Amino acid sequence: MSTHRPVALVTGASSGIGKETALALVGAGFEVVGTSRDTSRVTPLDGVTFLDLDVADDASVGAVVHQVVDRFGRIDVLVNNAGTGLMGAAEENSVAQARAVFDVNVFGVMRMVRAVLPHMRARGRGRIINLSSVVGFLPSPYMAVYAASKHAIEGYSESLDHEVREFGVRALLVEPAYTSTGFEANSPRPDTPLQVYAAQRRTFDRMMETAIKDGDDPAVVAQVIVAAATDPKPKLRYTAGSLAGRASTLRRLAPAGVFDKQIRKLNRLSG
């Protein structure tokens, strides 16, 4: 079955930002395929076709992209939303934990891009939208591994964008701040906790819990993703929400000393 409507593939679409993005793209006139690691547990969404996908598995990624192209004849927009968090001081997170985060947040994106990009190049058009974060350009104490994964996505996406523009394809970044999802509650804790970090880690956990609870509605981020997917002249980076916009301005304009103090204040760090 081919379609004249644009086709969007959204990873991690069962909840949170991914779910709202899938619905927003349906509202914008897209045929939408959403993915989840276990679609048997997903509540159906009007206008969204769900497929099982594990972005950490090469065969799974290849099979899903083949299914979408075979069914709809095209992929116009890829939204790489699937991701995982990790809390704790850098010294408390094992390399195994870090590897698991990167396998989803970084290598998962790379797998999806490598599978989808040949189809976009062949058609001479397409947009790859990678979900980054404000911690893709800000430090995040007690989330160093997660921040590192998002910094990696920033560098990868910007480099990729320069490579593929000549083929009519763009690689774009969407950078939310705190968003009201299950991110904090679902993020693993350190597998080698150390007493020396325990008090500050608890302070950070309380701060994150409040920030997520009071964060932007996922629909706010979804509308920014739709803008990235449809803007006639897309930008490389889209901040999502007022806090993300202020954070971007702080990063770009604040003197180093002022920036450093603001980061420590925000994260309730002493010294």
From TrEMBL:
Gene3D superfamilies: NAD(P)-binding Rossmann-like Domain. SUPFAM superfamilies: NAD(P)-binding Rossmann-fold domains. CDD domains: 17beta-HSD-like_SDR_c (cd05374). InterPro entries: NAD(P)-bd_dom_sf, SDR_fam, SDR_oxidoreductase. Pfam families: adh_short. Keywords: Oxidoreductase. The keyword Repressor does not apply. Belongs to the short-chain dehydrogenases/reductases (SDR) family. This is Oxidoreductase. The lineage of its organism: Bacteria, Bacillati, Actinomycetota, Actinomycetes, Kitasatosporales.
